[in-house]
Specification:
The complex is a heterodimer of chains A (108) and B (115). Chain A contains no helices and eleven strands. Chain A has 108 residues and is mainly beta. Helices cover 0% and strands 49% of the residues of chain B. By secondary structure, chain B is an all-beta fold. In chain B, a hairpin with a 4-residue loop joins strand 7 and strand 8. Classes of the chains: A mainly beta (108), B mainly beta (115).
């Protein structure tokens, strides 16, 4: 099983700042099948990035994903108020499909 | 537009069974693998089960293997999750989702296992 470790656990930033979220895998993610999700309270996860760096449909270009192998990053270039939420990474290259424990992005 | 609507959640006693259903519309359901993912209260996301586009392949997370069964009906655009021998730790919101790179997720149905 591939274990995904996200850091930091909580990130406190001001609107307008840049956010960098990390996801490290315990072994290489097959074909860079790594996704990022945003989840707001009481809502379903929303796909932001798949295949490590491809933005999902209708996702603003301030969200970008990168990385390969075992180290991946989600960057939000300029934080908007609606971006403050919990973010999860997920690997879907090999079963069991695992999620990181999440990074909570909070307003400073 | 794309819709995935889960149903069947509720409160059930430990050891009992429950069947969840997910109705899909707005996309070519029969072309996509489908998944169930759950989220315990205040916790993260956990993949539960998957079924291939034609139902010929099924896969399960270790915590539910041997107790849960995933199935689909491509004529009705539905995917079900039969949950047997439920435990308190199965308490969660259960989401259905299509192929991971589609971003198609339902809003979830809540299951509470408690005596």
């Amino acid at each position: 099983e591939i274990v995904l470790t996200q850091s930091p656990g909580t990130l406190s930033l001001f609107p307008g700042e840049r956010a960098a979220l990390s996801c490290r895998a315990s072994q290489s993610v097959s074909s860079n099948y790594l996704a990022w999700y945003q989840q707001r309270p009481g809502q379903a996860p929303r796909l932001l990035v798949y295949g490590s760096s491809s933005r999902a449909t209708a996702i603003p270009d301030r969200f970008s994903g990168g990385g390969s192998g075992t180290d991946f990053t989600l960057t939000i270039s300029r934080l908007e108020p609606e971006d403050f939420a919990v973010y999860y990474c997920q690997q879907y290259g090999s079963s069991p499909y695992t999620f990181g424990q999440g990074t909570k992005l909070e307003i400073k | 537009q794309v819709q995935l609507v889960e149903s069947g959640g509720g409160v059930v006693q430990p050891g009992r069974s429950l069947r969840l259903s997910c109705a899909a519309s707005g996309f070519s359901f029969r072309s996509f693998a489908m998944h169930w993912v759950r989220q315990a209260p205040g916790k993260g996301l956990e993949w539960v089960a998957a079924i291939s586009y034609d139902g010929g392949f099924k896969d399960y997370g270790d915590s539910v293997k041997g107790r849960f069964d995933i199935s689909r009906d491509n004529s009705k655009n539905t995917v079900d999750l039969q949950m047997n021998t439920l435990r308190p730790e199965d308490t969660a919101v259960y989401f259905c989702a299509a192929n991971w790179d589609t971003g198609y997720w339902g809003q979830g149905t809540r299951v509470t296992v408690s005596s």
